[in-house]
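Bug: token stream looks shifted between consecutive jobs. Job 1:
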Amino acid sequence: MEIEEIGGVKVERIGAHSHIKGLGLDERGKAKFAADGLVGQLRAREAAGLVVKMAKEGRLSGKAVLLAGPPGTGKTAIAVAIARELGEGVPFIQLSGSEIYSAERKKTEVLMEAMRKAIGVKVREMRKVYEGEVTEIDIKTGSSPYNPFVKVPQEAVITLKTTSEEKKLRVGPNVARQLVEFGISEGDVIMIDAESGRVSKIGRTQESYTYDLEAEQIVPRPDGTVLKEKEFVYVMTLDDLDNMYARRRGGFFSLLFGVGEREIDPEVRAAVDQQVKEWVEAGRAEIIPGVMFIDDAHMMDIEALSFISRAMESELVPIIILATNRGITRIRGTEIEAPFGMPLDLLDRLVIIVTDKYNGDEIEHILRIRAKEEGIEVSEDALKSLRKLGEERSLRYAVQILGIAGVKARSEGKKAIGIEDVEEVSLRFSDVKEAVDHLRKYEEELLK
């Protein structure tokens, strides 16, 4: 990883949940209507707040959380908010229940890897770092080598400023990817390891703290030079350490070409656990249990669900959050029907939080937040039209139309989305119900 100082354009970052900073609760644990990037779902957010307190007090052992509700009701957003509430640097791993099926690896191995990715090890070490307030950031994207239709970060140019100096840096794809993942923007105070390129977000300066839905730590602009030697605190996961140890064990060719085996040997994981234990006892590290979020949990079969149930009893386990939008359905791998497609003995050990459909006011507020997050100006008439689409069709459909209408308006040189943009785009793009009706119309002519 190379970082080059150079002798300078903003980046637009659009993530589905990049605006979420927490659960938006007051000091008594009561949910505000709109705060920390979340809107509505007051009962679910207050329940999630109690889950966070249980986790911090170590009282979530042997339990997991189930988020249940219709599609598009904020289940993923609440899971992200729980991770944010647990603190800065807490690992958050998200996967779908269908991702565990592979012809090359066992289901339990995929789940074990995800669990170890969700357990962080905070290490303290003296390192050379670039530290400062981000005053300019420009991330250049290009086509992914695996999918030409997907844009991925290629490099970035950032300007870091301290009380003493200002430097402009050009960084490679590894650092650029982390800048996007952490949602780094102007006004953030960050550290970049000069050797490894690991990025740490420290907080935000007071001068740049203007977004009323933010809940980030306010920090002063760093002193001294941009490049300095200081105690560098960063988080690795147990999975990172597993792969490092596996490469060492594989010898010279593994160092060059990778681990060489698709599954990590249990002996390697045992050695990693022992090393981490020694670091903790020596005061060099601390373990940070993160969040493993499994969406569409009903897609997992009885074997995978049994593994989750056993894993909940382990000493070294992340906070497990499952989500589903199913009612009474068949447990995959059996002929048994059960609530949420899960065995009753597992359901008895889950803390269940339900989510409700959003009302019109909540939909409108969410659309305002998304428009601000994506840098889109929307006229009041257009916003009312989008609200109506969210009420009659779905919130997700309305958000998609918002983004597409923004592209259309910009391409035509408009400063804001008008109602005509929303109506035209909604006529060209169908929601699920309209698409299904269209398929039924031509059912006899379609291939089966």
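Job 2, same session, no restart:
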Amino acid sequence: MLANSPPHTDLIATVSNRFHFKAIVYILVILFGLGTWTNLAGVWIQLPIITPILPESWHLPAKLTLIINSANIFPILIVFASLVFKFNTSSFEVPVNFVLLCTSILFAIAFAFLWDKTADLFGTKQSVYLMGLCFITAITDCLSSTTFIPFLHRYEPIYLNAYFTGEAFTALLPAMIGMTQGIGKSDCVLFGNETNGTLIEVHHQPQYSVQTYFLLLSFLPLSALIAFTILQFMKTGRSKIKSTPVKSEHKQSSIFILMDNIEDIDVIQNTIATINNIEDKLKKPKKKPNQLKKFLMSEPGIFLFIVFQCSAMLYGVCQGLTTFSLNAYSVTTFHYTIITSQFAYPVMTLVGAFIPEVSSKIIYSLYAISTGLFVYIFLTAKLSPCPPLVNQMFGHLIIFFVWILMNLTCSYIRILMGNYFRKNLGHRGLICFGIATQLGALIGATTNFALTNTFELFKERNICDKTLQCF
């Protein structure tokens, strides 16, 4: 009997070890994807709890939406600057990622202790600490998208899917923690005597405080930091082939031909004359009288407008109307609608993996449905403090499912449009897609801020005001 094991046994063991190491790297990349966006997701989930406590009250979501969308412009400017001046950022990606992950942990702790701190600003109490933290966090989170993904280019393409899985969990995990936290109930307590007394709404604490919630949330970027550190010491999964820039062989504008062994000079002269005529025609500026109109009426132009409007509706206006559209029904409806909405994008990302493309008719149908749902949400906010069916359970269910469907349809439209522009217009199309998304969100947030804070179009509901009768 041979003492040594057969060669194929060692081969199987080696393959098995490689598979295990790749699985470990895959999990580490998922954890790395948890590094950012968790804090802002946590702020939105805590809105039903912090809104009645902070001085901005029901106007808080509109202000936060404008602040966050304004902050997202700065990293985009940095990216454009790096493209214009041709900065090589690859050498800075690792240290910058370490800094971003550390700051994400610190910001979570800062949110825990500073979310309810106020200061006098323009003669009124303002939640300057919360707004300042949201502004800086939005900058770092958006900046992470420009450094985290390029860092993963060092790895095999399969690990990019792992990163997006982790990024999807940045919405799911804060929502699941919020579900365990619950929502504190509120009661109307009489202050003073029965004749001249006033009913005041008193809010009770949930299962655990906002401070505890953000401290628990800080473990997500901490796990991302640990995973990122381990990845630095592991070589498994790294791309072995480094992409080198291919130099173009056609840099010159003029057209050259090589004519060997041609004895007929007339043929050469005629050929050169033809080439010169072609060059002259190419150098003449072409008139484009209706190019903009032609693009806007084309399918890419229409799809770009759909991206713009969906971003304006979902990320701009709707986020600022959460209190007026949902809190008017009840704080419980507000709380669980916000939490359930966080599941929309991860779910539609999964759907998009199996159905990445659909026909134009389906896209237009989804767009029409999302617009109709938006109109209903806007009407409920406008009719606050007495939105439709506010005192009936059926009305609570309707607004709950309207918000969920709005998030599902707009998220899926965004995924479909991203796939469309990547496939048909390439890198340039994705840039246009990103600009339309950010511009739509910013304009929507600005419009909603003006309607909410300047024109005061929407009204709060005081559940303790017995003079207000809603039917």
